[in-house]
Records
---
Amino acid sequence: MFCRISLFDMSSPQATIIAAALASVVVVAGWIATHALTLQREREAREHSDRREKEARRAELLATLHFWLQTLVVQTDPGELKRLYYFGGAMKELAAAAARFRGWATDKARFDQLNYVSNMNPPALDAGGVDARRDTVCNALLTFIEFVHDA
């Protein structure tokens, strides 16, 4: 009734079938393990690449913010500061660097709130008075720098 198979009583076709089944199981298990390890390695590579990209964008934004802070903080003439901000490239460079980093910011609402420094209109620039233009811009830049360091 029952079929007993002994390793010694096995015919050649039965041995071939059993060997092929065992080989197939080993191959499939190997493929699954290799596939899982490859997916894990690719995920880790993407995460590493994303971290490097975020740090590069952060460094670029911080360099731009620090450059313009150092450039604008020494300006004592409110007219020259306004010219540098609007026509000297500060507003344009700050906006471009902030736009490249915005996608990496975790708190986008706070980022947008602090990023007003890159698109201040003249009434916002002169909110504290014409003589306080430098303080207005530099304080906004310092606050933004602190946020980007922690972002």
---
Amino acid sequence: MEHSTAPRQDRGPHFSGRVEDEALLRGLGRFGDDVKPDGALYAHFIRSPHAFAKLGRIDTAAAKAAPGVVAVFTAADLEAAHYHSISHGHPIPGRGGKPPVSPHRPVLAEKRVMHVGEPVAMVVAASAAQAQDAAEKVAVDYESLTPVTDAREALKAGAPQLWPDAPGNIGFDWTAPPDPDGKKQVALDKAFAEAAHVVRLELNNQRLVVNSLEPRTASASYDAAKNLFTIRCCTQSVSNMGMQICGIMGLKSDELRVLTDDVGGAFGMKGGAYSEYVAMLHAAKALNKPLHWASTRSEAFITDTHGRDSFYTVELALNKRGRFLALRVGCVGNLGAYVTGVAHFVFTLHIGGCLPTIYDIPLMQLNTKCVLTNTVPTGPYRGAGRPEASYLLERLIDAAAEKTGIDAAELRRRNLIAPENSLHHGFRQRVRQRRFSRGLRTRAQARRLRRFPGAQENGEEERQAARHRHRRLS
């Protein structure tokens, strides 16, 4: 599995800091839709208009006869390849040691569609416009089912059950910290029972649609002589992308090449594989032709991994002087229709690892239910975990200040972690060590980059020279 970004050149002795700014400001950046393979065909995806429905007959005859159309692919055309799930949850232990439930996420919808925007078929044509026009001729029979889109509603008795292996629609049940003998639970309950003040809030961290500056794009090709697949896509992690696609398609590491150029926004949602990439790689081999696809903005809203969408019940126990005694957090997190790789981390480890932020709270407990619903799958986005933890505590402290009559700033000051117990202790020494280590890495990376040959094709040499000129002059 070969991973690559755009080639770089040695910038001389001043090798540190940002390298991308000048090229991007001068319009010399190169993004996913700027590079298309010679003779590429164009892909367009038919997507479900239903949040939850049984999938019936898919009539592709009219689309296949449309001008410029080369092929139309459905799940039936991919069945013989036996592809694995597009995404599945990382198997961390939950309550009672049970790992997360990870329903199979097909490349193209098979028997049911689980959220609006799920890909059902792919049209391949000589141009993007022809592919889009032909897609309107694909007739799909749907039998609409009652969906559930709110995670809290999905937990109620009588709610539609989406997956048989996830009773109550619970994909992952988790609690922290570990309490094998139950002593922490006893101490927590006692702290709340004996507290002079108890503050309780219900808070909602709303769902986010990422809307990145550059929508997702991909080019796929296959070299039969070398048995080598190549995917060029805008991703923040070529390593993760390559490992996931190899796992999905059952490829060896040397049978896939992953390329990326400049990336116009990611923050988590471009870190993993998507259905479109696998479908395109399959078609590239089947047709022996390269393919290109660029998501529209409206597609991105219903296909790109979303963020957040969680509901919290938070409780804080305080003594008469306003000192924090215990914190209890209950979370209901919306996973969406399928489980992306570390979606359940956001509502569990990420938040749990950030509590109690900067405050000294002797006892804490976080109880989380990660719920499957008929919505676009969620995942980490822009520091997931840190915003939630700060949001919960700061709102709770404001409510505590109002209830106790203690000034909010003073209440925070009384409960700050003491300097000698904080990570800031010894800060200056760590800064000096970090600067020394960064210098070693800079010099080592400069030596490695001197071995890269200058790229001669597609104006890459000029682009890279412009990108790094400001450092040579400094």
---
Amino acid sequence: MCKGAWIAVAALAAACSKNSSDARAATGTTPAAQPTAAPAAAEDNTPPPGIDLSALDEFERKVFFRVLNKEPSACGKAHSLIHSLKNDPGCRKSVYAARYVVKLVDSGFTDSEVSEKLQKRFRGGPRRNIDIADAPMKGNPSGRVTLIEFVDYECPHCKRVQPVMRQAVDEFKNDLRVYFKHYPLPSHPNARLAAEAAVAAQKQGKFWPYNDGVWAHSEGLTPAVLEQIAKDVGLDVEKWRKDLDSDEVRQRVQKDRSDGEALSIQATPTIYLNGREYTDPRDIDSLRDWVNEELGK
């Protein structure tokens, strides 16, 4: 894990963080109050409709049913998750929650760990409004799912998530749009300059090819390397240099940083999906599951 210099964090998946003194996972939001399920009734251990339990062994099925009988509806109603699945067809979120429980239990998570992850994913607080007016975008501008990533160019975990983002855009061509926000960490000496260089390239309409060049050289982002990337992608280098040295470009990067700080971001990459902080591993299967939930698939 990369360590920065400010606030404490340790993300569930690898991330570059502001400080190494704490090991708590960053959420970026104040957790919402957890709904309270109805008074305990006899445990229901009959499989809910539409939920495939074939991957679970006998012990894992017991964990699954304990969780579903204990946890409240994913729609915030005062009954259990298993009751929601069987009696509240309008609560589609409970279907996704139950499938998520199957996945977690099959991966070896305990009852309490499953409950914690359900809390973060389905009861993590209100969706956040994030300014994307000036952020570069790829994907379908009319897509129903908006994914926003806050990134540091010298963070190796940010680099590793880029192929996942590209695959998601390819898979959800009609439904997904991805926005890029800069969040250079103080512990990475060249990250802010690289972010400003990318913004200067954006002013010539070449953010994405420049962005690819930066990732390709992310372990040695010296000023000379950043200028060579500008030449390689065909920028007007003189204009790029002037823009790079401008207050406008510096303020653009700082605006992204400030937007992230307002969200209490404590690690990179931090990803928001339709305003919800993404809290699962940064692999395509996990991200796909979240996108499909937003699309109601």
